[in-house]
Amino acid sequence: MSATSWLPQYRQIEHALRERLPAMRPGERLPSDAELCDEFGVSRMTARNAMQRLAEDGLVERIPGRGTFVVAPPSHRYADRLMAFSHEMERQGRVPDSRLLAREIRPATDTEASALALDAAEPVVEVRRLRRADAVPIAIETAILVGRAADVVMAADLESGSLHEALARSGLILRRGNATIAAEAATAEDARLLEVGEGDPLLVERRVIADAHGRPVEATESRYPGERYALNVRFEVDAGSPDGAA
Questions:
Q1: Does an H or E element contain 194, and which?
Q2: Which residues pair with 220 in a beta bridge?
Q3: Model's pTM, two decimal places?
Q4: What is the DSSP secondary structure assignment for residue 2, as one 8-state letter?
Q5: What is the rounded CA–CA span in Å between residue 230 and residue 5?
Q6: What order of strands is seen across the sheet that includes strand 123-133?
Q7: Whether 58 contacts 24, CB under 8 Å
Q8: Structure confidence at residue 7 (pLDDT)
């Protein structure tokens, strides 16, 4: 079985195309939907879905009547889409790695139980990692996962591997979530791990992610140095303000 054969077909094609992108130049044309159908033996809809995910991540541009072309990768991910940290850094041409700070099974706190729809003190798995790119600290990430994920999380390679891909291989496929973003001052521990000054501004993202059935699986906090990370935001102007004014 290949490394991605457990994924849906459109995700397998997406992964295959992602692996090609680093060797391609901005403006270079990618295969058409019809060419992808022939190459991978899939329907046009499946091929289109794979390419659309790349377009949504800002990696390619689809021009009607002309084709799909590589674009220079954006420096930050969009706030309405979550991708694996390793993929996010690789699309920027950077080398990702992780340092595992903690991994344990313990009772959920009241806040964690509420976020994950658990009973008080029900077992959860805590994973805490320092995420880096080109050996530069980018984030302190603390993930709290429901107890049914314990076996796969405790056995997974979380320094060179992907947590979400390990979950998906076990049948826990994450689909959607919600997040809040805030600014906070770096604590003494943040400063030590992220190599910033205590009190320096951090971008803090807290999110809860659910599976295909809408059941919460993961509650995560990511703490980023303000000068090293940002989130791009898509938005629409409120119809009540036709001139765009407040």
A1: helix 188-194
A2: 143, 207
A3: 0.69
A4: -
A5: 33
A6: 96-107, 123-133, 136-146, 216-225, 201-211, 174-185
A7: no
A8: 72
